[in-house]
Amino acid sequence: MYPIILALHSLIRWFVLGSLLFAIYRAYSGWLLNKPFSKFDNTIRNVTVNIAHVQLVLGLWLYFISPIVNYFLHNFHRAVHERQIRFFGMEHVTMMLTAIILIEIGSAKAKRKTADAEKFKTMAIWFTVALLVILSSIPWSFSPLISRPLFRAF
Ligand code: HEM
Fold first, then answer.
1. What's the CA gap between 133 and 95, in Å, rounded?
2. Is 138 in the pocket of ligand 1 (CB under 6 A)?
3. From CA 94, how far away is CA 56, in angstroms rounded?
4. Residue 143 belongs to some domain of the structure
């Protein structure tokens, strides 16, 4: 089960990034070009949150079955000084939970706004901050610190 959830979590990262980037693009172009907030924009807002939620569930699942996290939790005092272990046991989880909360708040606030420009602006700002947090906390294959493959085979 662990390798499948890990591969799924790795794959869904691209959907998280793709949906966020597209939502941000629509939000900025709607905001700056004074466009009406369409049903399609609302769907994009919803889809982005839903994909983030799927990733959250997979992440939480992984957290309970990952041997790395298991080692971290059972050897906290030693593991907290080991960068790779600490990253997955603590840093990745904290940053990604923060990012998902930012997406949720941004989406809920945008939904409640009445003016179209305000909806776009709210989405643009909250989703951009969330994207930056996510980009900084993905274990990129090219990272000299914590490196994981861009695509993991099932
Ligand atoms: C936007 C949200 C997230 C993204 C984009 C993301 C992305 C990733 C990526 C790319 C990996 C490496 C996968 C691999 O080794 O192939 C990973 C690993 C991991 N993620 Fe996330 N993640 C997110 C949220 C979360 C959350 C919310 C949690 C926990 C609550 C979590 C827990 C984990 C754990 C435990 C691992 C390492 C598992 C292991 O190697 O044993 N992730 N994540």
1. 7
2. yes
3. 12
4. no
Burial (0-12, 13-18, 19+ Cβ within 10 Å), 35: middle
Q: Is residue 58 part of a domain?
A: yes
Residue with CA nearest ligand 1 atom 20: 59
Q: Is 9 in the pocket of ligand 1 (CB under 6 A)?
A: yes
Q: At what angle do helices 92-112 and 116-137 cross, to 10 degrees?
A: 170
- DSSP-assigned states of every residue in 56-68: HHHHHHHHHH-HH
- 77 domain-assigned: yes
Q: Domain range for residue 47?
A: 2-137
Report yes or no on 151 lying in a domain.
no
Structure tokens at 17: 């990034």
State how far the Cα of 71 lies from the Cα of 62, in Å rounded to an integer.
13
Q: Ligand 1 centre from 29 Cα, in Å?
A: 31
Q: Among candidates 100, 133, 139, 122, which has minimal Cα distance to 42? A: 122
Return the pLDDT at 75: 97
Number of domains in the chain: 1
pLDDT digits (tens, 9 = 90+) for 122-146: 999 999 999 999 999 999 999 988 9
